[in-house]
């Protein structure tokens, strides 16, 4: 869970804002976004759908493989709840880059590695994924997951 | 190929810029981004790796399933070239939303539907995917694909 924080120093900020105030604002955005990603990882690894969905905007879009886009709190709760009934995760996320595009939007690329244990038979299988997040800052100044797509980087069976 | 253009009128622009000039700027950005997506679709359907890669930034990142992120022109050429040796596509992309996040960054959600024909045996298989693109405007004012992840929305085998 600490890997996000550890890798932050290496994250390249490619946003266009370059003034001193903007640099500080970007750094603050990054810190907050990394905290959200830490919470996402923890919620995922504890199979807590409500805690996951709290990290999304109300109109957030989750784009997992093999399922059409799931949009909004209710759909997200159902989707994550369904996943957690099938599999429990032990994943470690690593931030590859954070791009603060504006005061209210940012993009994040991560990868995650670990295992998933299938509820049906208790079998543990390797997991390796890459993720592309869009973050949005809400009116309260909180960064939330607005869009999120991922896929497996493991070779196809 | 024309579907992108047809759906543009229905695209919601959720970017934070609200002045008259900014609205016009957003509309211009959308038009350019849709044109890039049209060219992407055409290049994909004609198995033209060079034409695909031209649409990316020099440090563009392509995140297809079952392959780690491919970064930069050379890697992208190899990745798309490899795909086109295995499969030829006949896909129709539909824009779901374009959000212009700032003067230089935007993101786009699409889905694509159609078929892929396997080079190995000539078998044609259904394709249905969802895509999340991050676009960046370069110094010449051209919008390019900066980051791009997708996955299949078909049920897992």
Question: How would you describe this structure to a colleague?
Answer:
2 copies of one chain form a homodimer. The first copy, chain A, is of the alpha+beta class. Chain A is 32% helix and 39% strand. In chain A, strands 2-1-6-5-4-3 form a 6-stranded mixed beta sheet. In chain A, strand 1 (56-63) and strand 2 form a beta hairpin. Chain A is globular. Chain A binds chain B through residues 15-16, 61, 63-69, 96, 99, 101-105, 107, 109, 111, 130-132, 134, 147, 149-157, and chain B through 16, 61, 63-69, 96, 99, 101-105, 107, 109, 111, 130-132, 134, 147, 149-157.
Distance between the termini of chain A: 29 Å
The level of helicity of chain A is 25-40%
Order of helix and strand elements from N to C terminus of chain A: HHHEEHEEEE
What kind of assembly state do the chains in view correspond to? homodimer
The largest chain-to-chain contact, stated as pair and per-chain residue counts, equals:
A-B, 34 and 33 residues
Question: How is the main sheet of chain A built?
Answer: 6 strands, mixed
Q: What structural category arises from helix and sheet content of chain A?
A: alpha+beta
Number of helices of chain A: 4
Radius of gyration of chain A: 16 Å
Mean pLDDT of chain A: 90
Low-confidence stretches of chain A are: 5-16
Output the strand order for the largest sheet of chain A: 2-1-6-5-4-3
Estimated share of beta-strand residues of chain A:
35-45%
User: What coarse outline of chain A follows from CA principal-axis ratios?
Assistant: globular
Q: Total strand count of chain A, please?
A: 6
